[in-house]
Amino acid sequence: MDNLIYLVKSEDKFMAAYNLHINGAIKEVDVAPDTPLLWVLRDHLKLVGTKYGCGIAQCGACTVHIDGDAMRSCVYPVSKIGDSKITTIEGLSKNMDHPLQKAWIEHDVPQCGYCQAGQIMTAAALLQENKNASEEDIALAMSGNLCRCSAYLKIKEAILSVSKA
User: Fold this and answer.
1) Of 136, 129, 130, whose CA–CA distance to 156 is shortest?
2) Which among 91, 110, 130 is the end of a domain?
3) CA gap 64, 164 in Å, rounded
4) Alpha helices in the chain (DSSP H)
5) What pTM did the predictor assign?
6) Mean local confidence (pLDDT), 89-103
7) End-to-end CA, the chain
8) In which region does residue 158 sit, left (phi positive, over 0), alpha (psi from -120 to 50) or beta (all else)?
């Protein structure tokens, strides 16, 4: 835990200061070691693009990248991060010009939009690893991301358009 700065007891709970590498910058947070990364992002750093969905890593709304891998931040304790680099939807691109973000707009994917950050982050991790992902690869990678609006076909089309680019 090289990013741990100090550990103190506050109101019968241990608090710790962590230096986190988030979206290309180092941010210091003072939280309990078991605090899920999701709440560190949303409540302490005001990075609210990452959404709370289920709280048990089943829906994918809270997906972020940790060292390039798609991870569910709602169950990932801040104390496990160490020196890993975290990327949220806010850090995926500076001007919403990531190919997937463009494809989402081109294919008119968002409906309510609640799951979209997690969907895009999962797809981005897939395409980082497999630039020519097939429909089967996409179906497998995206199977854990739920969409209340059932935009699955448009999501697949958007990912395929970037995969085949």
Assistant:
1) 136
2) 91
3) 24
4) 37-39, 89-92, 99-106, 116-129, 135-142, 152-163
5) 0.91
6) 95
7) 40
8) alpha
The answer to whether the CB of 3 falls within 8 A of the CB of 37 is no
Contact 73, 63 (CB under 8 A): yes
The predicted pLDDT at position 75 comes to 98
pLDDT over 70 (residue 161): yes
Place of tokens 């799951």: 115
Residues 42 and 86 in one domain: yes
Q: Which tens digit of pLDDT belongs to each residue from 25-58?
A: 999 999 999 999 999 999 999 999 999 999 999 9
The b/e string for 15-30 (b: 16+ C-beta within 10 A; e otherwise) is bbebebbbbeeebebe
Domain end residue (candidates: 74, 91, 108) = 91
Q: How far is CA 165 from the centre of its chain?
A: 24
If one counts every other C-beta atom within 10 angstroms of the C-beta of residue 135, the result is: 12
Task: Retrieve residue 39's tokens.
Answer: 């709440």
Among residues 39, 19, 35, which one has the least CA distance to residue 27? 19
Q: Which of 153, 126, 147, 150 is nearest to 53 (CA)?
A: 147
What is the tally of structural domains in the chain?
2
User: What residues are paired with 10 via a beta bridge?
Assistant: 13
Tokens representing residue 143 in the block: 């199977």
